[in-house]
Design brief:
Distance between the termini: 110 Å
Oligomer: single chain
Helix content: 25-40%
Radius of gyration: 51 Å
Strand order of the largest sheet: 3-4-2-1-7-8-9
Structural class: alpha/beta
Strand content: 15-25%
């Protein structure tokens, strides 16, 4: 007995151990997820060796019909999960309503949800447990759904080196869950639902090295760093902050081409073959683009974004746009085309133009973009109207029209180190950031913020997001990735940007030829005058933060030690620092200039005098409210004159009362300033307390609204899930209804369905031949209908069947001679409940007529056999006897078989009737034949006198003569 128990324990242990031999796929779906699930399982092989667990947001009170719906799309068994159910490969499991699901040691565990209805996250709960149970054999798939459920679960699976696949948000009915998963981790695959099965199987079957730097050995990491160094030295482009997973995949591809197994060998190959470095560089430049990629993005741009921008611009304005990583230029030309269409719709006379700067690292792609020629396949992306209007058709394709080409400037440019394009109204950076590490993404976001003008629009790729780099940007459309640069006085921190604004070319020409001056001579001259002859000045905001510097300001301003601070009050030298605050405050109160004369400043032991002019700017609108501070040097002569005048006054003796008056005024100003500051402090303190109270109330309200929003969102997802399932069920019911209707009509059995009150519920088409019935009669008592049936008791019988539940059957005639077999039966539901009657009417008219004919024939046969007279039938054509009765056979003394083989004129008995064939044939055409007092001699030898009467009639094919022989 003990041994038996030990074997069972070992068996159980093996079962538990074997549960990790296959992967379990957790699939999270919510609003719009039913369609995605159907597409997924239609394309998933039946023998994949995987177990699938479907988690949905379900109404706790609703019966789950998802297993039934999914079973129609796959041959794999689909079932609803029960507690302690063991997971088996090639099965699909569906979570039941109002239950929390986890998995442990290959068994499902169900429990009551801990959270309230609106705060449940069943997908996160299961995926977290799946990650702990299956480790690197866990797979998380996020399909269409609202909210962020599943984003934490995919993090758990990713931390265990499992696989994450996400439905492309652009193909999902609700992009909330897919986008949240993409934001949370880097999925292994982002694709439409129908393509995920193939991607999943390919991932599980591949045996390449992991695309994760953390899993690489130290030698492999060193080799990868060497590859990055080789690329930097030869191409001038640094891929240090390029995503290592992408870099490894590209290196693996090149290794596969050259059939090199180890990465160390590939490094050696790169060093020996510089051309391979160039090829790897080209491999890393992923140039995937086409005209009007993502149709909804361009519709939004055309119908909303561009019109809103253009309406706010003055006439003759030049819009500036930049498209980094433009590849072969399709996106740049798409923008130019859409801009032209918008301008034509609004007002072409306003002369608003667009200048597009399109850049890329790939010089070959830039060269192709500059040509503006594209093959015939672009007709799949560009409409016929646009081809005719904006392209010139040539022999092998289409060329961009000159007026579109002139709008775009293509140039090689490295966005991570070359000086950026500034004062931009539009910046398109689509699907470039996804190949960069988060650090570089953050730095680029700061650069883009710097490059865009306030109110400028930034467009990112479908798989990209701002994430935590959203400072200074406002979300316009989170799904289509439109963002707006907000107005702010804060300057972006570009100190950590790699080589920002300081890139020097290594190759410098030895011949330093003077570059001829081109462009507007007036603007060049103005620039020289401003920089060399105009007084030094700074432009600051209302806080004193320096925005722009003109001329040399080192004599008046100096940076302070410690963290960099570009505030004029901090940087002002002694002398100016004492006089500046009061004058600055006065300047902010109006637009008149405030002038301070003969301010003494010390610089490296020398003393200088300067006149300070401070004025708030009223126009133009872009810098209105800023303050211009101008420094004007005062000649040394003036200083000497001041000193001489002072000495003279000192010698003569100054008026002490005047000095005392000035001092009293200073004390008075100081006292007023102190009182104003105290009052301001008290007001600010009061306001601060009010704001703190308001903030607490708003935080409380926000928490309540967030909770309500989550509850409503969860409820909405549950309703959408129920609605999708009911719609699918409705389609099934509709199909079943059509099948039932066709089945009933094909049987040609008139059927009438009535409820317990004998009201008509439904009927087949054949019933209209019995009752005067139309569709509008549904709901009426069937006993009120006019009918041809001779069945007045039908209503009484119907009530009796409902009462006794015993079927009644009758054969009923109609007024027009038809006959019906009428059956009245109880109507039973699936749960065996009586809910009315079913009355069927089977047309038996033909059967009834056949029965009557059969009875008549039977009666005649009886008469024929029992008659005393001799009766026989003959074929007119052959003269042979067809049939004869027993009386005649007795006279002949023979059998039917003997007489049926011979013509009547050859038999002795009938020679007295017809002795020759010719005599017989004379009967043809006669209706009635009569022969009287004919002498015959039967078998008994007695001579008898009989009368013979006959008549002819047509049978199916022959003419028949019937004779009666009657003895006198």
């Amino acid at each position: 007995m003990v041994k038996k128990e030990s074997k069972m324990s070992l068996s159980n242990m093996l079962d538990v151990k074997n549960h990790s031999d296959f992967s379990v796929v957790g699939i999270g779906a919510s609003a719009g997820g039913l369609e995605a699930l159907e597409k997924f399982f239609k394309n998933m092989p039946v023998d994949s060796g995987l177990a699938f667990v479907v988690i949905q947001h379900l109404d706790p009170t609703f019966k789950n019909i998802l297993p039934e719906l999914l079973q129609k799309t796959t041959l794999m068994p689909v079932c609803q999960i029960t507690d302690l159910l063991k997971v088996i490969p090639n099965h699909i499991y569906v979570i039941p309503p109002n239950r929390a699901l986890t998995i442990h040691n290959g068994f499902f565990h169900l429990s009551e949800p801990k959270e309230s209805r609106g705060l449940r996250l069943p997908i996160d709960v299961f995926l977290n447990s799946l990650a702990l149970d299956k480790l690197n054999k866990s797979v998380g798939i996020i399909l269409s759904g609202m909210g962020a459920d599943g984003s934490e679960g995919v993090k758990a699976i990713k931390s265990k080196n499992g696989l994450i696949l996400v439905q492309d948000p652009l193909t999902s009915k609700s992009s909330g869950m897919p986008q949240s998963a993409i934001n949370a981790v880097k999925p292994n695959v982002v694709a439409p639902a129908e393509k995920l099965p193939a991607k999943l199987m390919a991932l599980l079957q591949s045996k390449t090295i992991p695309n994760d730097e953390e899993r690489m050995s130290s030698k492999d990491k060193q080799s990868l760093d060497t590859i990055i160094s080789l690329l930097r030295d030869q191409t001038g482009h640094d891929f240090t902050l390029y995503k290592k997973s992408t870099l490894i995949r590209r290196v693996e591809r090149r290794k596969g081409i050259h059939q090199i197994e180890k990465i160390q060998n590939y490094v050696r190959f790169l060093k020996e073959n510089p051309k391979e470095v160039e090829l790897l560089f080209k491999e890393l430049l992923i140039g995937v683009t086409n005209f009007f990629r993502d149709f909804l993005v361009w519709e939004k741009l055309k119908n909303t974004i561009l019109p809103d921008i253009i309406r706010q611009l003055p006439d003759g304005y030049v819009l500036r746009s930049c498209i980094p990583a433009c590849s072969t230029g399709e996106e740049a030309y798409s923008l130019a085309i859409v801009f032209k269409e918008v301008i034509e719709q609004i007002d072409p006379s306003r002369q608003i133009t667009l200048q597009i700067f399109a850049t890329d690292l790939d010089t070959d792609a830039i060269d192709k973009a500059r040509k503006g020629f594209f093959g015939e396949p672009i007709i799949e992306d560009v409409s016929v109207e646009r081809l005719q209007k904006f392209f010139i058709q040539e022999e092998e394709g289409y060329r961009i029209s000159p007026f579109i080409r002139e709008m775009v400037v293509f140039a090689p440019h490295n966005v991570t180190k070359d000086p950026p394009f500034t004062r931009l109204n539009l910046l398109f950076c689509r699907n470039m950031l996804i190949y960069m590490e988060p650090i570089l993404q953050k730095q680029l976001m700061e650069l883009f913020y710097y490059s865009l003008s306030p109110g400028g629009i930034m467009l990112l790729g479908s798989a990209e997001t701002l994430g935590r780099n959203n400072k200074g940007f406002e979300v316009i459309d989170s799904k289509l990735k439109f963002f707006k640069r907000m107005k702010s006085s804060t300057r972006p921190d570009l100190n950590e940007f790699p080589n920002a604004f300081s890139y020097n070319k290594k190759m410098i020409s030895k011949d330093k030829n003077t570059t001829p001056i081109t462009g507007n001579i007036q603007s060049v001259t103005d620039h020289i005058l401003l920089q060399q002859f105009a007084p030094a000045s700074v432009l600051v905001n209302d806080k004193g933060d320096i925005i722009y510097i003109t001329g040399k300001t080192g004599k008046y301003l100096e940076p302070v030690a410690g963290k960099a601070n570009w505030n004029i009050h901090v940087m002002a030298r002694d002398g100016i620092k004492n006089e500046l605050p009061d004058a600055f405050r006065k300047a902010l109160q109006g637009y008149d200039p405030i002038i301070l004369k003969n301010i003494k400043i010390k610089n490296n032991g020398n003393s200088n005098f300067v006149n300070l002019t401070i004025q708030q700017i009223a126009a133009p609108e872009t810098i209105k409210g800023m303050v211009l501070v101008v420094f004007t040097d005062v000649s040394v002569i003036i200083e000497q004159e001041v000193q001489t005048a002072t000495l003279q006054k000192s010698d003569i003796g100054s008026n002490s009362k005047e000095e005392e008056t000035k001092l009293a005024l200073c004390y008075q100003d100081l006292q007023n300033t102190r009182e104003e500051m105290q009052t301001s402090q008290e007001e600010l303190k009061s306001i601060n307390e009010e704001l703190q109270s308001t903030n607490e109330e708003l935080q409380s309200t926000n928490e309540e609204l967030t909770t309500s929003k989550e509850e409503m969102q969860s409820l909405n997802e549950e309703l959408q899930t129920v609605n999708a399932e009911l719609q699918s069920k409705l389609v099934d019911f509709e199909q079943a209804n059509n099948d039932m209707k066709n089945l009933l009509n094909s049987t040609e059995i008139a059927t009438l369905f009535i409820d317990k009150e004998l009201n008509i519920r439904r009927f087949t088409d054949s019933i209209t031949k019995i009752f005067k019935l139309r569709l509008t009669d549904i709901g009426r008592p069937f006993t009120d209908l006019t009918t041809d049936l001779q069945y007045p008791e039908i209503g009484i019988h119907a009530v009796q069947v409902i009462k006794d539940l015993i079927p009644i059957q009758n054969t009923i005639a109609t007024n027009d001679g038809r006959w019906f077999y009428v059956r009245i039966l109880p109507y039973r539901t699936i749960d065996d409940r009586i809910d009315g009657l079913v009355i069927t009417f089977t047309d038996i008219t033909i059967a009834k007529q056949a029965e009557e004919i059969l009875v008549a024939e039977k009666n005649y046969r009886h008469f024929f056999e029992s008659a005393k007279e001799g009766i026989f039938f003959l074929d007119m054509q052959t003269g042979k006897i067809i049939d004869l009765n027993y009386s005649l056979l007795n006279w002949l003394g023979t059998t039917k078989e003997q007489v049926s083989e011979r013509p009547i004129w050859e038999m002795d008995f009938f020679k007295s009737f017809f002795d020759t064939k010719a005599q017989w044939m004379k009967l043809k055409g006669k209706g009635i034949i009569s022969k009287e007092k004919i002498k015959i001699k039967p078998v008994d030898g007695k001579l008898r006198s009989v009368d013979c009467i006959g008549n002819t009639y047509e049978s199916e094919e022959n003419e028949i003569i019937q004779f009666f022989i009657r003895e006198e």
